[in-house]
Amino acid sequence: xxxxxxxxxxxxxxxxxxxxxxxxxxxxxxxxxxxxxxxxxxxxxxxxxxxxxxxxxxxxxxxxxxxxxxxxxxxxxxxxxxxxxxxxxxxxxxxxxxxxxxxxxxxxxxxxxxxxxxxxxxxxxxxxxxxxxxxxxxxxxxxxxxxxxxxxxxxxxxxxxxxxxxxxx
Length: 169
Fold this sequence. Notes:
Radius of gyration: 17 Å
Order of helices and strands: HHHHHHHH
Structural class: mainly alpha
């Protein structure tokens, strides 16, 4: 996870080669973990595969390749959906947030809306997904339920000192 975190930071800074290097080291380390090794109830390989797909998406974004970014986010969502339910979840955030954000940035608000709505079914009152849903509705000029989504987001985000943008998703 150290390599994952470094890779994320480097990708965010636009240091693609360095991020790819961290991703390669992460993959090499993950390959050495015995197949039967579990975290709590999920196999370590299953959880780390999400991290590798997440990092692949962020590297694609840093490269300016949004189509590949979305492909990797979809793969990460599929991998996360296959994890067994665990409290707290063994992956640290709902990947659909990032997929929805990428779809919004690519001008696909109706697809983003569906992704955020699905995440909210799984993770009710997720502030980041409520924000994404609100933005997707605005872009589509949909007014039905926009007030409700805005109220839900305001309530979910009321204690945060940070504001959100589509770029944050």
